Amino acid sequence: MHVKPKILIIYTGGTIGMVNDAKTGELKAFDFNHIYTHVPELERLSVELTTVSFEHPIDSSEISTEHWSRIATTVSENYALYDGFVILHGSDTMAYTASALSFMLQGLKKPVILTGSQLPIGTIRTDGKENLITAIEIAATKDENGSPLIQEVAVYFEYSLYRGNRSSKISANQFEAFESPNFTPLAVAGVEIDFHKDDLFRTSLTDVQFSTNMSHEVGLLKLFPGINFNLYKPLFDVNQVKVLVMETYGSGNAPSNGVFQELLTNYIHAGGIVVNVTQCASGKVEQGKYETSSFFNKIGVISGRDMTTEAALTKAMFLLGQQLTLENLKLQMTTSLVGEMS
Question: What residue spans define the domains of the chain?
């Protein structure tokens, strides 16, 4: 007897859950308990769907660590009851949420798929229906042994499935809104869904390690020509900022500025951690490749290699929340925990 996979849909907010009010014409969130009314195609999927929604849908620009904790807690509390999870989320900060959840829910052996849309699901040309239907289908897919095929946090958008902590939003107005610049898509949906099985993440952990402790003591500095480093001195206060993610040029380069180098040196000596990621859409940091980045190696700046900014920030927030020693935190920052770096 065929048992339908059980999928929990978690609606947090975002464009995908919007329909036009018949009276006012304004967009409003619809009741996901009536999801089959708005997406009748779901009736044809061989899955058992359950929905849960945030009481007050959140615009993705309002997403905070508290919302991440709520999502992670919902997955954790229902983990044993469902075969997979689909999280509906606004696209603007989806890559941040996907990255954060990948660290908060380590040891997954079930899929947690985030998706959304560029147009409301009540719009004729919406991309929301396809994104939702295929995300559910992927979440319900089993391997030849009957285990979930996807066992990690991922983002599905416009025919492509990406590792969550490798994804970035790259377009505000195209349906192809996301990319995974340094890692191949996990799957591509065409007539068939083509899974790239050799690239799927498999954990070495026995059980899910669930933690919602996230620190806010993380800063971000993006370099640009002519930057006045004196304006950014508060970012180098180790009492306020424990980890500073630094977006540098190319393969990890920065200007040989005396004020900047003094700020970095004093900050690291005081116990601050600096993580170097590239501003480029693809590629990786190679500290010491050029003279302008060799100084970073001398003072102990950590190379973020090919991590996205979203992954570097959320990883730092997560690790700081685990109350690790300084040396262990540095070690974990340079170690790929859930496939976030090559």
Answer: 6-210, 218-333
Q: What is the pLDDT of residues 311-331, one digit of tens each?
A: 999 999 999 999 999 999 999
pTM value? Answer: 0.94
Range 6-210 classified under CATH 2.30.40.10: no
CATH numeric code, 218-333? 3.40.50.40
- The reply to whether 6-210 and 218-333 are identical in fold is yes
Catalytic residue among 15, 65, 308, 314: 15
Q: Is 15 a catalytic residue?
A: yes
Euclidean distance between CA atoms 48 and 185, whole angstroms? 27
Q: Which two tokens stand for residue 286?
A: 């190679």
Render pLDDT for 87-121 as a digit per residue (tens, 0 to 9): 999 999 999 999 999 999 999 999 999 999 988 87
